[in-house]
Amino acid sequence: MFYYVLKYVLLGPLLRLVFRPRIEGLEQVPASGAAIIAGNHLSFADHFLMPAVLRRRITFLAKAEYFTGPGLKGRLTAFFFRGAGQIPVDRSGKEAGQAALREGLGVLRRGELLGIYPEGTRSHDGRLYKGKVGVAVLALTAGVPVVPCAMIGTFEAQPPGRVVPRIRPVTIRFGEPLDFSRYAGMEREKAVLRAVTDEIVYAILTLSGQEYVDEYAAVVKERRATGERGRPRSPLG
């Protein structure tokens, strides 16, 4: 119930007013049945813009930190994400993420839409990064199509670290569903999972026109943070 209050009363109309989203290829999203919507991730606003324009309900895999933040802000954020039906993903390791994958499979087995960001985290610089294979595991195990989606302009509207978004139009572009039935029964083959994931990311890249980086975003972020911490401060500040 809370999901639809957010979508149609509280948040959806506001998002449409602020971002004035241009929607392309919405007919590519199946009208019924299970499917994965796999998108790039440029902004905190992505979590809410895509659900606002879809005709069907979608459940996202969201990072666990959104559910465990301290203080009043943390509690409100957790309430918001739980009320919207989002699934927390523990990103501390492979085993920690298995529960989230099981939850995601449950969503798909109920014939619903599941949203996932193959990069695993927001892009810190607007580029598209190497995808993690969880999306391939879900697609092959559940035997469902994957609809690529590109968020365009959300990085400029609300880049990481910016609380209040700039008022500017964005585009949400959906591509043709990808069918991986040729890999049925091969969800444990590492080479197959990588090939499927790369095909999904390439479809997103084609839609978004971003620059691609063949590294995991989390690794690049960590390297950048480590470099900044280790860099000596200038005597001029």
What do these coordinates show?
41% of the residues lie in helices and 15% in strands. The protein has a 7-stranded mixed β-sheet, with helices on both faces. A two-stranded parallel sheet has the order 6-9. Helix 5 runs parallel beside helix 6 (134-142) and helix 6 packs across helix 8 (190-208). It contains 9 helices and 9 strands. The chain has 237 residues and is an alpha/beta fold. The longest helix has 19 residues, at 190-208.
Topology record:
Elements: H1 2-10, H2 12-19, E1 22-24, E2 35-39, H3 46-53, E3 58-63, H4 71-83, E4 87-89, H5 98-109, E5 113-116, E6 128-129, H6 134-142, E7 146-152, H7 154-157, E8 171-174, H8 190-208, E9 212-213, H9 217-230
Parallel strand pairs: 1-8, 2-5, 2-7, 3-4, 3-5, 6-9
Antiparallel strand pairs: 7-8
Helix pairs in contact: 2-3, 5-6, 6-8
Short description:
By secondary structure, the protein is of the alpha/beta class. The protein has 9 helices and 9 strands.
Features:
15% strand, 9 strands, two-stranded parallel ribbon, alpha/beta, globular, disordered C terminus, 9 helices, 41% helix, 237 residues
Elements, N to C (H/E) = HHEEHEHEHEEHEHEHEH
Could you give the count of β-strands?
9
Q: What proportion strand?
A: 15-25%
Which strand order does the major sheet show? 1-8-7-2-5-3-4
Coarse morphology? globular
Estimate the helix proportion, in percent: 40-55%
What is Rg?
Answer: 18 Å
Class computed from helices, strands and strand pairing = alpha/beta
- Distinct helical segment count: 9
Mean residue pLDDT: 86
Unreliable parts: 232-237
* CA(first)-CA(last) distance: 52 Å
Query: Mind describing the biggest β-sheet?
Result: 7 strands, mixed
